[in-house]
Amino acid sequence: MRNDSSFIELKARERARLLLDDGSFRELLDPFEGIVSPWLEAQGIVVQSDDGMVVAKGTINGGPAVVIAIEGAFQGGSMGEVSGAKMAAALELAAEDNRNGIPTQAVLCLETGGVRLQEANLGLAAIADIHAAIVDLRRYTPVIGVVAGTVGCFGGMSIAAALCSHLIVTREARLGLNGPQVIEQEAGIDEYDSRNRPFIWSMTGGEVRYESGLVETLVGDGVNAVKEAVNAAIAQGVPAQHRTDNYAWYLERLSNFDTTKQADSEQIKQLFGEKRA
């Protein structure tokens, strides 16, 4: 595969393989292990033998690394008991490596709508474990998040993205706490039309998230562009302050925001744009 090809169009396994050094990819709990969700088949849903979560060990620029990639094509990249446990355990093991003097890097490819509704509380518990594991690991090494498209990153996993040390997005990416259909269902189509693609991307797309300072890097859709951004983020090391440590700054601005008016991209940029400046 040419390294200047689309990163967005790749499946999770190929994303992980190409982010690691050539020949270093080694998958943990791969499809031949036959690990599936115990809850989907009972509901008549076809299972997948890795539960849509790819965990790969290898090296990045010669250093030990783990790349965890969510398969957005399976159940919308939703997080269930098994897939969530795979991600949390991989992050926990990376933290343990660092404590034992093995400086293991971590990259998360996030294509997820959040919790898997069919697994409800079990999925939510797994996401909480992922949050705790990211916070633990990021003390030792930068945790790099990549949101490329086309699923985006929503729900509890958008919190996982915010907890990352460094976020990389494409223009095609979307990032938000609630997905467009959820907002439309709760607030009504007049408030949020989930079929209005220009509007959706103007509110939650990668470009506006970057211009608002909510993510660190905006890249074009290409394997080389994403790899270079990941390498640059790793080279920067652990930030002096993670964005979630600066919660008071965000709370102050949100508390002063006029929620009686329909928000737009310019308001979002003005609200948080100081972080980019």
- The gyration radius over C-alpha positions equals 18 Å
Task: Give average pLDDT, whole number.
Answer: 94
Name the poorly predicted regions. none
Write the H/E string, N to C: HEEEHEHEHEHHHEHHH
Give the CA-based shape. Answer: globular
Which CATH top level class fits?
Alpha Beta
GO molecular function: acetyl-CoA carboxylase activity; carboxy-lyase activity; transferase activity
Domain CoA carboxyltransferase N-terminal: 1-242
InterPro entries: AcCoA_carboxyl_beta (IPR034733), ClpP/crotonase-like_dom_sf (IPR029045), COA_CT_N (IPR011762), Malonate_beta (IPR017556)
Protein name: Biotin-independent malonate decarboxylase subunit beta
Short structural summary:
This protein has ten helices and seven strands. By secondary structure, it is α/β, with parallel strands linked by helices.
Describe the protein.
One of its GO terms (biological process) is carbohydrate metabolic process. One of its GO terms (molecular function) is acetyl-CoA carboxylase activity. It comes from Buttiauxella izardii. Residues 1-242 form the CoA carboxyltransferase N-terminal domain. With 277 residues, the protein is an alpha/beta fold. The protein has one domain (12-239): 2-enoyl-CoA Hydratase, Chain A, domain 1 (Alpha-Beta Complex). Helix content is 38%, strand content 13%. It has ten helices and seven strands. The protein has helices at 12-19, 81-99, 120-137, 156-163, 180-187, 197-204, 206-211, 223-236, 247-255, 265-272, and strands at residues 26-28, 53-60, 63-70, 105-109, 143-147, 166-170, 217-219. A seven-stranded mixed sheet has the order 1-2-3-4-5-6-7, with helices on both faces. Helix 2 runs parallel beside helix 3 and helix 3 packs parallel to helix 4 (156-163). The longest helix is centred in the first third of the chain and has 19 residues, at 81-99. The N and C termini lie far apart (38 Å). The model has no long low-confidence stretch (mean pLDDT 94).
